[in-house]
Input
Amino acid sequence: MNEQDETRHPKETAAAADADAGRTADEEQKREAAGDGSPEDVAEPDPAALVAELEAERDEYKKKLMYALAESENIRKRAERDRREAEAYGGTRLARDLLSVHDNLARAIDAADAALREQAAAFFEGVELTQRELLNAFHKHKIEKVEPEKGEKFDPNLHQAMFEAPVPGAENGAIIEVMQAGFTIAGRLLRPALVGVAKAAPASQTDDAA
Output
């Protein structure tokens, strides 16, 4: 029995070796078909495509940078504009409240006749001085008086018409009476001047005058 086993053993060994060789060949063929990841099997990148990709990425970052710079500049301009407006118009509410003080001083001065002024000369001198100081303070803060002359053309940006009346010899739309002075602050209307405006006379009156 031992001799037979020893006789068959070399054959079995050879068969096993052949099987191993066959498996090795099959695995090699499979690796060659699928590619084993060796450097020879990796495709070389296209230089032109790589350059195009990098240029596209560069352009995208450049676009984002330009947008950020433009937005930053807009923010700076808005902040500067807001600062200027706050400086110029920050006192608008206070200035509007002080206009009534100016109006009362003006009424007191206009209401006094010559006799009253003579009796209380020092008092009216103080009132006029106070009015001048108030106007100087207004001017210092770019608050200017709007007081049109009679005959001046009505300006809807500065004047408010309280009434219209036909006046012989007056041009249509001309100011015929100033009821209250107006004011501007840094060029912006603070209060319109209240005025009366001439209007064209009716055709019948024009014919009668002719």
About this structure: Strands lie at 143-146, 159-166, 175-180, 182-185, 188-191, 193-199. The radius of gyration is 50 Å. The longest helix spans residues 47-89.
